[in-house]
């Protein structure tokens, strides 16, 4: 939410050479919001996590256009019964996406 991760858009602003595209889908400029919320690969991953854990209240396909702040608020305050577990799951999943 503080936009401190070194995504392509941020590297570009600092003058560091990069291809500018999301390394997962290679179709859109990489920003933190795209990478963690809007990328089709991330949405697919969240769909798998949703199915795996039976999180029926989670709807990753409806995240298009959300800001990272709105997305995080929905994840932390949404209809998921165990908020602490959901916060941990969100952090773990976003960490894995970032590492990829
Ligand atoms: Zn992407």
Describe it.
The chain is mainly alpha-helical. It has one domain. It has helices spanning 8-14, 32-38, 40-53, 68-77, 83-99. The relative contact order is 0.14. The mean pLDDT is 89. Bound molecules: zinc ion. Zinc ion binds at residues 22, 24-25, 28, 34, 39.
Keywords:
binds zinc ion, 0% strand, elongated, mainly alpha, 55% helix, 5 helices
Averaged pLDDT: 89
Number of helices: 5
Instruction: Identify the quaternary structure here.
Output: single chain
Task: Work out the radius of gyration.
Answer: 14 Å
Gross morphology is elongated
Query: Which cofactor or ligand species appear?
Result: zinc ion
> What is the strand content?
under 5%
What is the CA–CA distance across the termini? 19 Å
Describe the structure in brief.
This protein is mainly α and 100 residues long. Helices cover 55% and strands 0% of the residues. 18% of the residues are buried.
């Amino acid at each position: 939410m503080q936009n401190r991760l070194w995504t392509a858009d941020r590297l570009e602003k600092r003058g560091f050479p990069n291809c500018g595209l999301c390394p997962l889908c290679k179709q859109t400029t990489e920003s933190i919001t795209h990478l963690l919320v809007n990328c089709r690969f991330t949405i697919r991953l969240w769909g798998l996590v949703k199915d795996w854990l039976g999180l029926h209240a989670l709807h990753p396909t409806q995240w298009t256009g959300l800001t990272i702040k709105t997305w995080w608020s929905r994840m932390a305050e949404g209809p998921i019964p165990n908020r602490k577990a959901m916060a941990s799951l969100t952090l773990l999943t976003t960490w894995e996406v970032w590492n990829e």
